[in-house]
Task: inverse folding
C-alpha cells in the first residue's frame, strides 16, 4: 500500500505558513520546513515539534540537498518574501549557477519564481500551489461580510481591475487603490500594506477608496497569489478605504473569520470578484 508523499514547505513570512504547518500537525502529515531567514516567523518555526532548517535566500544548494536528505517529494512555497536585490544575495554555487542560467530575463517578481519552480522540478520535486493543499484558503465569489459596496465603489472596482490587469501583464504588481475614479496608488516592490498606507496621504473627501487585488494574467497559480487578511483590513481602516476586492478563486484570504469580523466592525466590505465581470 503506497505511503503518503512527504511535503516540503518553503516558508516565508505571514500567517499562511503557520496555518499549513498546524494543518500538517493536526493530520499527522509528514513534512519538513525550509525557513527563509529574515522572513519566516522564528517563534513558529523554532518549536521542537516542527522539523526545519533555516536558510538564506542565496542557499538554494543547501535547500535542495536537505530536501533530498529528508526524502521530500512535494513542495509548497508560501508566505511573503522580502525581495532582495542581486547585490543583497550572497549565493552558494548552486544559486550562482541558477542566476547565471536565468540571466536578466527574470528580473520581475514572477520571472524569478517561475524559474525557481522549474529548478525544483528538475530535482524531481513536484511543486504544488497552496490552493491544492488548503483549498479553503481561496476567497469565494461574492460579498463575504455584512457590508455591501456602493455604486461608486463598484465603479472604482471596475477601474481598479483595468489598472491591475495592465500592471500584471508588465509583472509589476497585483494591487491598486482607486477612489472616486482616481488611481491613488499602484503596488510596486513595497507590498500591499505600504501601498495602502501611502494612499492615505492622497485620499479625497467623500466616499473612501477601494483596494483591488488581481492575479497577474500570466501568473502561475502555484506561486505568490494575491493575498489579504486581518492586517489588510486594519490598514484599510487607517487609510479610510471603504472596501477590498480580491480575485475570486485566485486570491487567498488569511484568517478568514477574523478578517471578516474586523471588516464588519469597521464598516469595510470584502468581496471576491471575477475580473471578467468588471472589464
Result:
Amino acid at each position: 500500500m503506497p505511503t503518503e508523499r512527504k511535503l516540503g514547505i518553503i516558508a516565508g513570512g505571514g500567517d499562511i505558513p503557520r496555518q499549513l504547518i498546524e494543518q500538517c500537525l493536526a493530520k499527522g502529515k509528514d513534512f519538513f520546513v525550509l525557513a527563509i531567514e529574515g522572513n519566516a516567523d522564528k517563534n513558529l518555526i523554532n518549536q521542537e515539534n516542527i522539523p526545519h532548517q533555516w536558510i538564506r535566500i542565496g542557499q538554494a544548494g543547501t535547500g535542495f540537498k536537505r530536501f533530498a536528505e529528508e526524502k521530500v517529494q512535494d513542495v509548497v512555497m508560501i508566505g511573503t518574501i522580502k525581495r532582495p536585490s542581486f547585490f543583497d544575495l550572497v549565493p552558494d554555487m548552486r544559486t550562482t549557477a541558477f542566476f547565471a542560467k536565468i540571466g536578466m530575463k527574470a528580473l520581475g517578481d514572477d520571472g524569478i519564481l517561475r524559474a525557481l519552480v522549474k529548478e525544483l522540478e528538475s530535482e524531481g520535486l513536484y511543486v504544488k500551489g497552496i490552493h491544492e493543499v488548503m483549498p479553503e484558503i481561496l476567497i469565494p465569489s461574492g460579498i463575504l461580510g455584512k457590508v455591501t459596496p456602493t455604486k461608486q465603489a463598484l465603479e472604482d472596482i471596475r477601474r481598479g481591475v483595468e489598472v491591475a490587469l495592465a500592471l500584471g501583464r508588465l509583472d509589476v504588481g497585483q494591487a491598486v487603490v482607486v477612489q472616486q475614479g482616481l488611481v491613488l496608488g499602484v503596488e510596486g516592490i513595497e507590498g500591499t500594506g505600504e501601498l495602502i498606507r501611502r494612499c492615505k496621504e492622497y485620499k479625497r473627501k467623500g466616499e473612501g477608496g477601494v483596494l483591488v487585488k488581481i492575479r497577474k494574467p500570466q501568473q502561475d497559480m502555484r506561486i505568490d497569489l494575491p493575498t489579504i487578511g486581518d492586517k489588510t483590513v486594519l490598514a484599510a481602516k487607517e487609510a479610510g478605504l471603504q472596501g477590498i476586492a480580491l480575485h475570486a478563486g485566485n486570491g487567498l484570504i488569511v484568517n478568514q473569520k477574523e478578517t471578516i469580523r474586523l471588516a464588519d466592525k469597521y464598516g469595510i466590505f470584502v468581496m471576491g470578484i471575477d475580473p471578467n465581470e468588471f472589464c
Summary: The radius of gyration is 19 Å. The domain at 7-133 is CATH 3.40.50.20 (Rossmann fold). The first strand starts at residue 7 and ends at 11.
